[in-house]
Amino acid sequence: MIIKRIRDLMEEERSKIINRNKMNLENIIPTVQEILKNVREKGDEALRYYTKKFDGVDIEDFKVSKEEIENAYNKIDYKVIEAIEKASENIKEFHEMQLKNLKEWEMEKNGIKAGQILRSIENVGCYVPGGRAFYPSTVLMTVIPAKVAGCEKVVITSPPTKEGEGNPATLVAGDIAKADEMYKVGGSQAIGAMAYGTETIPKVDIIVGPGNVFVTAAKKLVYGDVAIDFPAGPSEVLIIADENANEEYIALDFLAQAEHDPNAPCIITTTSMEKANSIKNKIIEEMEKAERRDIIEKALENSAILVGDLNECIEFSNEYAPEHLEIITKNPREVLKKIKHAGSIFLGEYAPVPVGDYASGTNHVLPTSACARMYSGLSVETFLKKPTIQELTKEGLKNIADIVITLAEAEGLYGHAEAVRRRVK
Ligand SMILES: NC(=O)c1ccc[n+]([C@@H]2O[C@H](COP(=O)([O-])OP(=O)(O)OC[C@H]3O[C@@H](n4cnc5c(N)ncnc54)[C@H](O)[C@@H]3O)[C@@H](O)[C@H]2O)c1
Ligand SMILES: N[C@H](CO)Cc1c[nH]c[nH+]1
Ligand SMILES: [Zn+2]
């Protein structure tokens, strides 16, 4: 983990940090293309082949049965079921508030009514990761907003366990969130299945959800045949910490980030070299005691502590456009005013990323690899379309006829012009 002044970063070092994970995707595109082609052509047979190859298990029927869901409740601690239920309530409440703030509207001027209505996407496919860890929380973050948006059919795909079963907590979360169907298949092959349909897995209209580089590359490649939310790959965090920030909390937030994936970077920007060194020491101390140390050690290589004044830290963060941004400074709301790009923002020392990961109600499916520059995280809006409407009186049509006729004829589209001219003559 390097410590460097922001202004001393060589162009190459800066671009390596900013362009994290982009190279990884490019390298695996040919492999993923082949997987998608085979799934498209051979359906379930290809799913069985890749599930054996990548997950090491034989699966005959990918669909999770009612019996498997019932059994899943007996395999997990009651406290976990309760936590899933409580988190669901907060997530539902937050996303219902989003829906409430999305209004259909209409304006009227000179006999012309124009407006916008809301309609949900019908068929949704949610990818729920299950490689290095299983993510029942992602079930809640994907299925609940889709259901709040009124989507008709919401299906989940998630990798099987080493025993070839559905992960019990994932299945329970799917049941609590009211997913319509669940399938035990993961990786690029699951994305291909939802994009093109197989004998057992239905083709959907939109695929949402996070995943590793194989899942993210597959989503990018099927985009156009199906809608996707946005690239939500290996998780990342950038922390802006001033000289008063608590280095123990920062070290813990580093570990919480790094344990996701060896490609999961944590960038800490801070206002003094002394602070940077004490944060690094604390990270090393905490790492000694950490679980999942093999993953954390690898993630450390993608991570950095950068030093600059507060404005330089903010500027770097805006260039990096992190998935998660923690602001641990004397006045986080002042810093917030200058933030241009971030997936989800955590203000102050008592708002670590894990609260948003599980239970504050905000969505944890967020854009990575600088895609926060142009995308927001998953929300009810992801699952809604906004068709526009217009209704005109004859008087209203007369009022804009000249504009339409003139522009249509300028484009050489005389049929367009005539469709208006005849009505107003
Ligand atoms: N951005 C977000 O919103 C967000 C949210 C939660 C999790 N995440 C990220 O999701 C990721 C989850 O990754 P994961 O690996 O644990 O689970 P995953 O489900 O994304 O990937 C596991 C699958 O990858 C496939 N795979 C593994 N090795 C392969 C290979 N060599 N070739 C082809 N396919 C292969 C297998 O099919 C396997 O089932 C982490 O990076 C985590 O940070 C991101
Ligand atoms: N931090 C991850 C990416 O937003 C989400 C997550 C799920 N479980 C734990 N963490
Ligand atoms: Zn997390």
From TrEMBL:
GO terms for cellular component: cytoplasm. It catalyses: L-histidinol + 2 NAD(+) + H2O = L-histidine + 2 NADH + 3 H(+). It comes from the Archaea. Substrate binds at S235, Q257, H260, H324, D357, E411, H416. One of its GO terms (molecular function) is NAD binding. Its cofactor is Zn(2+). It holds the Pfam family Histidinol_dh. Binds 1 zinc ion per subunit. NAD(+) binds at Y127, Q189, N212. Keywords: Amino-acid biosynthesis, Histidine biosynthesis, Metal-binding, NAD, Oxidoreductase, Zinc. Its EC number is 1.1.1.23. NCBIfam families: hisD (TIGR00069). PANTHER family: HISTIDINE BIOSYNTHESIS TRIFUNCTIONAL PROTEIN, HISTIDINOL DEHYDROGENASE HDH. Catalyzes the sequential NAD-dependent oxidations of L-histidinol to L-histidinaldehyde and then to L-histidine. This is Histidinol dehydrogenase. It comes from Methanotorris formicicus Mc-S-70.
